[in-house]
Design goal:
The complex is a heterodimer. Chain A is an all-beta fold. Chain A is 0% helix and 52% strand. Chain A has strands at residues 4-7, 10-13, 19-25, 31-37, 44-50, 53-56, 64-67, 73-78, 87-94, 101-102, 106-110. In chain A, strands 2, 4, 5, 6, 9, 10 and 11 form a 7-stranded mixed β-sheet that branches. In chain A, strand 7 and strand 8 form a beta hairpin. Chain B is mainly beta. Helix content of chain B is 0%, strand content 54%. Chain B is built from no helices and 12 strands. Chain B has strands at 3-5, 10-14, 19-21, 24-26, 32-39, 46-52, 59-61, 64-69, 74-79, 88-96, 103-105, 109-114. In chain B, the strands form 3 sheets. In chain B, strands 2, 5, 6, 10, 11 and 12 form a 6-stranded mixed β-sheet that branches. In chain B, strands 3-9-8-7 form a 4-stranded antiparallel β-sheet, with no helix packed on it. In chain B, 34% of the residues are buried. The chains are: A mainly beta, B mainly beta. The interface between A and B is medium-sized, with 23 and 20 residues.
């Protein structure tokens, strides 16, 4: 049974064309995270929601935005994707203070 | 500031050999948590273990075991009798209570188990 679901698994977008990645969870966790992972690197935290409170990392580009309309869903919006934004995007959830559970990721290609 | 170092970037072993992955961390917090995650080629990060700073007991789960030593700031991971399915990238991570429990990952160690 999938607990953290990410759609789509693969996304191709054009340079500068807005794209939205989605994440949903069945764990009812109060914290949701978005990470960017480039090839042969560790995941890099972009931002996270503690309930409805949004927490942006200092070095996350303004090009990246997020929405969490309810406990179960969280979206990552890339307003104007550049070639450097091609990466795997990982969503994770956690009950505050406990381990994070990751989704399968969305691999983004920018053409 | 918190930091996690995985000095081994890649380890190659033959099936049934044991393999130990090193993890060294830095933190100024007294309450922190250590984790290991496995990332197979499919890409999903799979949670393996969480250990808090007050619990130095070693742990064994099947072929996996973990050795936590606060004196050397290390949290090493051993796979006994490795199998091809163990081939993956393994990440050690640290979270500090004072930093909102955000994960700081090490650089990862790629394990290749050959038949």
């Amino acid at each position: 049974d999938a607990m953290v679901i990410q759609n789509p698994r693969y996304q191709v977008t054009q340079f500068g064309k807005p794209v939205t990645l989605s994440c949903s969870q069945t764990l009812n966790h109060n914290v949701m995270y978005w990470y960017q992972q480039k090839s042969s690197q560790a995941p890099k935290l972009l931002f996270h929601y503690y309930d409805k409170d949004f927490n942006n990392e200092a070095d996350t580009p303004d090009n990246f935005q997020s929405r969490r309309p309810n406990t179960s869903f969280c979206f990552l919006d890339i307003r104007s994707p550049g070639l450097g934004d091609a990466a795997m995007y990982l969503c994770a959830t956690a009950e505050s203070g406990y381990e994070q559970y990751f989704g399968p990721g969305t691999r983004l290609t920018v053409t | 500031a918190q930091k996690v170092t995985q000095a081994q970037t890649e380890i190659s072993v033959v099936e049934k050999e044991d393999v130990t992955l090193d993890c060294v961390y830095e933190t100024r917090d007294t309450t922190y948590y250590l984790f290991w995650y496995k990332q197979p080629p499919s890409g999903e990060l799979v949670f393996l273990i969480r250990r808090n700073s007050f619990d130095e007991q070693n742990e064994i789960s099947g072929r996996y075991s973990w050795n936590f030593q606060k004196s050397t700031s290390s949290f090493n991971f051993t796979i006994t009798a490795s199998q091809v399915v163990d081939s993956a990238v393994y990440f050690c991570a640290l979270s500090e209570e004072a930093a909102g429990n955000k994960l700081t990952f090490g650089g990862g160690t790629r394990v290749l188990v050959k038949p």
